[in-house]
Design brief:
Layout lengths: L1 E3 L9 H6 E7 L5 E8 L7 E4 L2 E4 H10 L16 H11 L3 H4 L3 H26 L6 E3 L2 E4 L1 H7 L8 E10 L2 E2 L1 H10 L5 E2 L12 E2 L13 H6 L2 H17 L3 H4 L4 E6 L5 H14 L16 H10 L5 E4 L5 H14 L5 E8 L3 H9 L23 E9 H6 L6 E10 L12 H13 L9 E3 L6 H15 L5 E3 L2 H4 L6 H15 L1 E2 L15 E2 L5 E2 L4 E7 L4 E8 L15
Parallel strand pairs: 12-13, 12-14, 17-18, 17-22, 18-20
Antiparallel strand pairs: 1-2, 2-3, 4-5, 6-7, 8-9, 8-15, 8-16, 10-11, 14-15, 16-23, 19-21, 22-23
Helix pairs in contact: 9-12, 13-19, 16-17
Length: about 575
């Protein structure tokens, strides 16, 4: 361990300032262990000197990090400054005239010191707010109880992230209510393709969205500048805002962000541009189509609708894009960059992608049968799933209904093959373990797994290994919504995340329809053909994708997950 001896407390004045310095103890991993005051010439060991009190550094670290019972006794006896006062002092330091005259090296050191102090204060504030440290003293006098201190202190704890609204465009229903009813009934959204002529390809079935008319959701001007994929995204976003009982005017400003995922975005517009160019040459291209193409337009169109002026991102993370988008959106809120994030994903059915999966011999002829011994492959789908994520503070201030809490998420890459998962599923195992750990949970706390479940041989076997590796001998209920929706690629995990919210709210596990013959290599507790009821406090939404993308998101009932800590900052 080492002790920083080069900083004084900027909040102290006169003799007190000359007599004492503000110190920080560091452990061998270069993490701050504790903050304290000590006489200038007295600090020569990694012992905490709180004026007249002595507390060992490792013991203080143990009390703050693990929140064990001994922390409630008296590990932390005295603080040099009240937390809110220390925060104000740190904020003023950047505007202080003396700091303005510092040279570049001093300013760099100053920023590092401020960061370590903020990290320590955040950990200590968490200890106080959860009641694990019963007494906080300043200069030997009890200032307030942990509950009172939590209410008064201005140091921000990592924000909880809640889902307050959802919007759905899918092959089994338009809108939340229709979607939830179809999931419970085990309805199939697979039908003959009408968007193009699939006859030359030898396959003609998919989860095509029927009955969606952009005119029901978009203005004339919006219809003119959007393709079908963007139109579905905007329609789902407006449904989500209605479900969250929030107006677009309430979201306008720099504290609202948009993060959407997709695989190919406006692929239909691109196909039309290519056809015009190839057949008629460059002069044949219709200029009005050019501004309607581009994956980045999905998030931009939604941002214009809601007035989002914070981060606007489109994540083309293949078939894991929905989970990626939800995870990044939660990060923006936890990092304090936004109060509200409109997130999710959208995808449309198009001839190029359809023919590609046919050429890969990955497409079934009639139905998708995940984890079944006689499965033949996947069936494609389309749609959009949008969620409104809010910080706990913002949601409670406006009286929003909390539908679910977004826990940690795990991401990884197999770095193995373009179209097949790693045979040992090492990347997916790591992502799932990481998501659970970042949520402050153990595998035993998970009640249900929504599987990626494409119905392809390699994917289902690999995913079965993941479940067995992470959960051991537990026969955890598992199901694949792709048997009903088709594989909606970039939108798949966003739509399935909304399906997970259905499970959290109702306790109903959606079925895997078409499951007839168990596969010994996929020895799982599959929810077969008929929905089941069971415990549903915590659910996992798993996704894999071409290129080795793996993304796992944990969703839970509000109030079930433990408070987020600094170790979950990137979750």
């Amino acid at each position: 361990m080492r002790i920083d001896r080069n900083r004084h407390n900027p909040g102290e004045k006169g003799a007190e300032k000359r007599k004492y310095k503000l110190r920080c103890v560091w452990n061998d991993e270069r993490k701050p262990v504790a903050l304290f005051e000590a006489p200038r010439r007295q600090v020569r060991s990694p012992t905490l000197c709180l004026k007249s009190q002595i507390v060992e550094g490792p013991e203080a670290l143990d009390a703050i990090r693990t929140q064990e019972d001994k922390a409630t006794d008296a590990v932390i006896r005295k603080l040099p400054n009240c937390l809110d006062e220390c925060r104000r002092n740190l904020a003023r330091r950047y505007t202080h005239s003396a700091a303005a005259r510092c040279n570049a090296q001093q300013r760099k050191a100053q920023v590092g010191w401020d960061c370590c102090v903020r990290r320590f204060l955040r950990e200590l504030y968490f200890a106080a707010s959860t009641g694990q440290v019963r007494e906080l003293w300043r200069n030997g006098t009890s200032r307030c109880s942990p509950t009172e201190h939590s209410a008064k202190c201005q140091v921000p704890l990592l924000e909880r992230v809640f889902v307050t609204g959802v919007g759905v465009i899918s092959s089994i229903g338009l809108g939340k209510t229709a979607f939830f009813d179809a999931l419970e009934a085990g309805m199939s959204g697979i039908s003959p393709v009408t968007a193009f002529d699939p006859a030359p390809l030898g396959r003609d079935r998919a989860g095509e969205v029927k009955g969606f008319d952009a005119r029901d959701h978009l203005t004339s001007a919006e219809q003119h500048r959007m393709g079908r994929c963007s139109a579905m995204a905007v329609a789902a976003a407006r449904m989500a805002m209605a479900d969250a009982r929030v107006q677009a005017t309430d979201l306008v400003g720099p504290r609202t962000a948009v993060v959407l995922g997709t695989t190919m975005g406006e692929a239909r517009i691109l196909a039309e541009l290519d056809r015009e160019w190839i057949v008629g040459g460059q002069q044949a291209i219709v200029r009005a189509r050019v501004p309607r193409y581009g994956s980045m337009l999905l998030a931009i169109h939604v941002a214009r609708v809601v007035g989002a002026r914070a981060a606007v991102l489109t994540l083309p993370a293949a078939c894991a894009a929905g989970n990626y988008a939800i995870g990044v959106a939660a990060d923006l809120i936890r990092a304090g960059r936004a109060d509200v994030v409109v997130t999710g994903a959208a995808e449309l059915l198009q001839e190029l992608q359809f023919s590609g999966f046919v050429r890969l011999a990955a497409m079934a002829s009639e139905k998708c049968q995940p984890f079944d011994l006689n499965r033949q492959g996947l069936l494609l789908g389309e749609g959009a799933g949008v969620l409104i994520l809010e910080s706990e503070g913002h949601a409670r201030r406006r009286g929003a209904q909390l539908q679910a809490e977004v826990g940690g998420y795990g991401i990884s890459c197999d770095a193995y093959h373009i179209t097949r998962p790693h045979p040992e599923a090492t990347g997916s195992v790591a992502a799932m373990r990481d998501a659970i750990a970042r949520s402050g949970l153990q595998p035993r706390d998970v009640d249900f797994v929504n599987a990626h479940g494409t119905g392809t041989k390699h994917n289902d076997i690999a995913e079965s290994k993941v479940v067995r590796d992470v959960f051991g001998e537990r026969r955890l209920p598992i199901s694949s919504m792709k048997s009903m929706l088709g594989h909606c690629m970039g939108a798949a995990s966003a739509l399935e995340a909304i399906g997970c919210i259905f499970t959290l709210q109702t306790g109903i596990y959606p079925p895997t329809i078409g499951y007839e013959t168990p596969d010994p290599e996929c020895d799982l507790n599959v929810v077969a053909n008929v929905a089941q009821r069971g415990k549903s406090d915590v659910v996992i939404n798993n996704s894999l994708a071409f290129g080795g993308y793996n993304a796992v998101t944990v969703l839970a009932k509000p109030g079930v997950l433990p408070p987020p800590t600094r170790s979950e900052r990137r979750a």
